[in-house]
Automatic annotation (TrEMBL):
Annotated protein name in UniProt: small monomeric GTPase
Keyword Magnesium: no
GO BP field: signal transduction
Compartment list: Cell membrane
Sorted UniProt keywords: Cell membrane, GTP-binding, Hydrolase, Membrane, Nucleotide-binding
Organism the protein comes from: Dreissena polymorpha (Zebra mussel)
UniProt GO molecular function: G protein activity; GTP binding
InterPro entries, per database record: P-loop_NTPase, Small_GTP-bd, Small_GTPase, Small_GTPase_Ras-type
Lineage: Eukaryota, Metazoa, Spiralia, Lophotrochozoa, Mollusca
Enzyme class, spelled out: hydrolase
Amino acid sequence: MSTTPKVSTSSTASSRNGPRVYKIVILGEGGVGKSALVIQFVSHRFTDYHDPTIEDSYQQQARIDGEPAQLDILDTAGQLEFTTVREQYMRHGEGFILCYSITDRRSFDELLAHKNLIDRVRCNENTPIIVAGNKCDLEQKRKVSTEEGRRLAEQLGAPFFETSAVNRQCVDDVFHGIVREVRQKEYDELVESERLAKKRLRKKRMHALFSRLNIFKRKSPTASSGD
Ligand SMILES: Nc1nc2c(ncn2[C@@H]2O[C@H](COP(=O)(O)OP(=O)(O)O)[C@@H](O)[C@H]2O)c(=O)[nH]1
Ligand SMILES: [Mg+2]
């Protein structure tokens, strides 16, 4: 495993040779369980220790709502500073998992800073995201209520799950959910572009009709003068 994430700028459109690739990035403060969640999703096991400085990508195929998908997941190291590499993956990521730990209020409070960073780099607020409140198996150490998590997600317009990388609770929901969000955005964009195309076509037809009417109007006085 390398310490430098591999950020590809190639098209992610569905290829004839395999399923559509979805570039997913998981963000959040160090120690919230980002690596544990990714490894649980990909390898079906819980890792108690994962080097916190390692940023690496993982590939996993899944069938989501009957459609195959290849998830290309970048597990980040949690810092908020701007670097060229970070800017690159923020730009090329298609869906973002914002992760905090329910046992750590600071990680929850920091989530908005991660969201703002995404918006700043991408210059829009329309990026598909999902919120994951991890370590929900540690109920006795809870510092952030489920309601607070739900409200934050609502504020960000994102789905919300409380997860546990230990017992795999809602792990699939989060990774499948972010693919659903990306698909939904693509569908909305397609519907919007079809609407605009139809509008343009209607305008063009009206224009052609009016031009013809104008020709008739111009022709009619000449026709009458010939009488
Ligand atoms: N109890 C519990 N511990 C977790 C969970 N997820 C991660 N951990 C532990 O939290 C620590 C940090 O996890 P890690 O995945 O390295 O966090 P990262 O820095 O966000 O990648 C490790 O000791 C993990 O074993 C979880 O869902 N429940
Ligand atoms: Mg990690």
